[in-house]
Amino acid sequence: MSENENQNEPDRDMATARAPGAASASVTLGHDDDSVGVLTILREWGDALVIAFVLAMFVRVFVVELFKIPTGSMSPTLIGDEIAEVDINGDGLTDLIVNGQRKLVFLNRGDRFEYTDDWLVRRSELDMWRREGLLRVEYDRILVNKFAYWFGQPERGDVVVFKVPEIIWSSSKPIYIKRAVGLAGDRISFGGRLLLDGEPVSEPEFLRHQLYVNEVSLRSQGFAEQPFIDYGDARLGSDVSIERVRVPEGNIYVLGDNTRSSLDSRYWGAVPDSRLKGKAFIRYWPFNKMKFIR
Question: How many domains does the chain have?
């Protein structure tokens, strides 16, 4: 018996040795489960990212799009220029000075900014504001509703984004933003207030106070030739006053709010509805000036 017991000892030892091996096998199986769990999580995250990307592209293509204002043609509504915000007339309200192609002053009337030519901004003032950090470049950023005109037509006063008309299209400036002032069939004039059939336009409220320049200054816009509208005997360098415009069917007539420095329908005519990309509805940058666009 003692010999058998001695012979059985190795068996017990081997059995004892196998037990850790079995436990080790169990642990290894647990690592495989963890790997499967990680892959599952990664797949779920991957699916979520793909869905988020598809939704983002859908929103961008069909719902809303972000745009940056590159010029001062829509001042003071939307800024894309060097500006200073100072109280230039001492009434306690912060006025807006735009140092663009021309030096423009917009007085703060509490509920709006109104252009005035009563104040001449001197270079020394600009230099002083620049030293004080009051003169800066600002580019507003906006959200555009891309389905605004799928089921309806633009309304007078809408700030619209559109593909640049083919006759002046440029790869560097394929998109413009202006305000719709004339709708299909309208007979409008604008040498100050916007007039419809000879009567001042009062709706929307913005147009009650807005003043437009009806002159086409060929030299100031850098035309090497005549504009794309036939203005008869006008010559390069001369100013042409537009007396009356009839907007063709299927088109809108657009002007920059800052017609003193805006390349708009006065130069290349009305915009076909087919070229409209959407309606600007909110300025989201700068954050401290976030607001809906009237």
Answer: 3
